[in-house]
Design brief:
Number of helices of chain A: 6
Distance between the termini of chain A: 68 Å
Order of helices and strands of chain A: HHHHHH
Strand content of chain B: under 5%
Helix content of chain B: over 70%
Largest sheet of chain A: none
Oligomer: heterodimer
Shape of chain B: elongated
Shape of chain A: globular
Helix content of chain A: over 70%
Structural class of chain A: mainly alpha
């Protein structure tokens, strides 16, 4: 077994394990941690696919930003929940549907024959070349993405500031 | 070298897990996380197909698209969590089935 296959199998097993535990765990914080495990293993697979920039972004954004943010919101809300039933009523139908979808993907994937691949992208040059292409050919999408992030920041601050105002008014 | 179909299969599995989570979980935060898992499955497809393509230029373009997907996922989570906090302060719950004010 080549080291590439071994790496893939390890990370894929971690992803499936984390995903399954994410679905069945009863504790919200545990679910967040398994979600984190899935995302980090995904970053490992991105590394093995010679995409170190995407992997670094994945670790930075998901570990540094999203998981922490989600944990904050869980801490802010979870203590006050009376008693949530774990799953909604339609769970069985949903699981059947998802398994059907997955088997369709499986059939499609098994008939897909990709022969060639890049054997080595020079990882050192990866970030540099991505930057060049990003600022040459994708400069407009890049600007649109930055405006999107700005709108997201302003929107989030606006929504949360409304909460504060609401609470102050109630307590006053 | 790992066959391309393995990556598609793994991405399909992650997508199915995210779909199950998004439609069966009752906690709004977990539903948001499941949507993120589905976005990550798409990301894996982008990166693995970029790897399978035989030119460096095309591979880098695939990776750039996945970076854009990541940016949009981050914006979505930020806004989504702000909305969750707002809903929680109004309704005192984060159970998705309780948000049915528009129901006739």
């Amino acid at each position: 077994m080549s080291p590439e296959n071994l790496i893939f199998i390890i990370f894929a097993a971690l992803i499936i394990f984390g995903g399954a535990k994410f679905l069945i765990s009863t504790d919200t914080v545990h679910a967040v941690l398994y979600f984190f495990l899935v995302l980090m293993s995904m970053a490992g697979i991105f590394f093995s696919l010679s995409a170190p920039f995407v992997a670094a972004m994945q670790i930075l954004l998901y570990a540094g930003a999203i998981t922490i943010l989600i944990l904050f919101v869980v801490m802010l809300t979870a203590g006050h929940i009376p008693e949530i039933k774990k799953y909604r009523a339609n769970s069985i139908a949903v699981i059947i549907m998802a398994v059907a979808l997955y088997s369709i993907i499986l059939i499609a994937a098994s008939s897909y024959q990709a022969t060639s691949g890049i054997k080595e992208i020079e990882s050192v040059k990866n970030v540099e070349s991505i930057g060049t292409i990003l600022f040459k050919d994708y400069i407009y999408p890049f600007e649109v993405a930055s405006i999107l992030l700005l709108v997201a920041i302003v929107g989030a601050v606006y929504l949360v500031s409304e909460i504060k105002f609401h609470n102050n008014k109630e307590s006053a | 070298m790992v066959p391309q179909s393995y990556y598609i299969t793994l991405a399909g599995a992650v997508f199915a897990i995210g779909l199950i989570g998004a439609l069966t979980k009752k906690n709004v935060i977990l539903v948001l996380m499941s949507v993120d898992l589905m976005l990550n499955a798409v990301l894996l497809n982008f990166v693995s197909f970029a790897y399978a393509i035989n030119s460096l230029e095309a591979a880098l373009r695939g990776q750039i698209f996945s970076v854009f997907v990541l940016v949009i996922a981050t914006a979505e989570v930020g806004i989504g969590l702000a909305i969750v906090l707002l809903l929680f302060s109004r309704k005192q719950t984060i159970d998705v089935d309780k948000f049915s004010s528009l129901k006739g």
